[in-house]
Write a structure and sequence with these properties.
Layout (H helix, E strand, L loop, with lengths): L6 E4 L7 H10 L8 E5 L3 E3 L5 E5 H4 L9 E4 L9 H7 L6 H8 L5 H9 L20 E6 L9 H12 L3 E4 L2 H9 L5 E2 L7 H12 L3 H9 L4 E5 L7 H14 L6 E4 L11 H10 L5 E3 L5 H9 L3 E4 L2 H9 L4 E5 L10 H9 L7 E3 L19 H17 L4
Parallel strand pairs: 1-2, 1-5, 2-4, 5-6, 6-7, 7-8, 9-10, 9-12, 10-11, 12-13, 13-14
Antiparallel strand pairs: 3-4
Helix pairs in contact: 3-5, 8-12, 9-12
């Protein structure tokens, strides 16, 4: 019997963002028995944080060992990411301010970024057969792209052309699917792969919660804790003040701790200074600013919490998987919530009461976080759809 072709799992896990870092972990059991490499635009070693190394796709496609490899776009909001945004998010935080000051208003920034990242077109995380002529099958799995609605027609046309150059395309929400349909692309609807992480790694996560910083948090807050996460765009004084008041009212038990968790350390994600300011607004309330950047520690922290308030889609997905009450924070005005990444996903796969995802700017004074059911009634069907979506393209890899 011939050895199956190798697989390159490709995505934006070349920067620190919890959701992106989860995708290789979820796909790993399904690809058991194959030679697997993990690729991004640049090299990163996440061995200590997630258990794998990321290599530049441009280099892997020229390696003899990767000849004829299948290319799997593993998920994430890849459809509306341009080269300049990708380049910025791959900069070290110490160089971010100078990079933005130099390039943010320069019309040549897209060409500069494309050259710096050595990507084949304006869409750095979409590589079809024309970008890699020697690839086996090219798969786009459960991608997101709600931001495509605000992109130019030429950008949308480039996305459509890239997806047409692939063998299988699925997206994770109806908003993205409808946008692609208007661009002439029919995509299968498949839940985000991260839904499966609690099922696949429950035992390991429970073990992670018994050691390191998650165990320290558990010992410190013997009456439980709430996990709170938000992005740097919520860092203005007024928004932070509303958020602090809401958190204190949502968790009225003063014995319950508040743990602030940075789901992404890359530029434009969660900023330490903003969390430190927020912690001060909580006054005398017991607060812990979680330090570990490990994927396993972060997931174990969430799994042991009493509730989750987060702007990260994947924290809400994991909370649902662990049957933990949660509330999602969406950027933008109230009328745009269902078009946001969080709103689009949960309006597609959730079965929740209204206002389970709320706008940050219109955050209510009191959040009924502790009163909400954690999982939608059809969560088992969501898990089945997520697994079946992977198995469909997996069955066709060597067919």
């Amino acid at each position: 019997m011939n050895e199956p072709r190798p697989c390159i799992v490709f995505g934006a896990f070349d920067r620190h963002n919890l959701g992106d870092l989860l995708f290789p972990l979820v796909l790993s059991p399904f690809l058991a028995g194959r030679r697997v490499r993990h690729a991004g635009l640049v090299a990163r070693d996440w061995s200590a944080l997630a258990g794998y190394r990321v290599e530049p796709l441009r280099e892997l496609m020229h390696e003899p060992d990767c000849a004829g490899a299948h290319l799997i776009h593993a998920g994430g909001e890849l459809l509306d990411c341009d080269a300049y945004e990708a380049w910025i998010m791959l900069q070290p935080n110490t160089a971010l301010a100078s990079a933005i000051a130099r390039w943010d208003r320069d019309p040549a920034r897209f060409d500069m970024a494309r050259a710096a990242l050595d990507c084949p077109g304006p869409l750095p995380y979409l590589w079809g057969h024309q970008a890699w002529l020697g690839a086996g099958r090219v798969i786009a799995h459960a991608l997101g792209g709600v931001g495509l609605a605000s992109r130019s027609p030429s950008f949308g046309a480039a996305v459509a052309a890239s997806l047409a150059d692939m063998d299988s395309v699925s997206v994770r929400d109806r908003v993205t699917a409808d946008i692609l349909l208007r661009l002439g692309v029919r995509a299968e609807l498949v839940p985000d792969a991260a839904c499966l992480l609690p099922v696949l790694y429950g035992e390991r996560l429970r073990a992670s919660g018994d050691a390191g910083e998650p165990a320290e948090v558990r010992r410190r807050f013997s009456h439980g804790y709430w996990l709170v996460q938000f992005t740097a765009q919520s860092g203005d004084d007024a928004t932070l003040a509303r958020l602090a008041a809401a958190v204190l009212r949502a968790a009225p038990d003063a014995r319950c701790g508040i743990v602030l968790y940075r789901a992404g350390r890359a530029p434009w994600h969660d900023e330490l200074a903003v969390y430190e300011r927020f912690a001060r607004l909580l006054g005398t309330r017991a607060v812990h600013l979680f330090q570990s950047a490990s994927v396993w520690d972060g997931c174990a922290l969430l799994a042991g919490s009493r509730g989750v308030l987060a702007s990260s889609l994947h924290l809400t997905v994991l909370a649902a998987g662990f049957d933990i009450p949660w509330l999602g924070l969406a950027a933008g005005p109230a009328e745009a919530v269902m078009e946001s990444k969080l709103g689009a996903f949960w309006s597609t796969w959730g079965d929740y009461p209204e206002h389970r995802v709320v706008p940050i700017d219109g955050l209510p004074d009191a959040l009924p976080l502790h009163l909400s059911a954690a999982q939608p009634s059809g969560w088992a069907e969501v898990l089945h759809a997520a697994q079946a979506g992977i198995e469909r393209w997996l069955a066709g890899l060597d067919g």
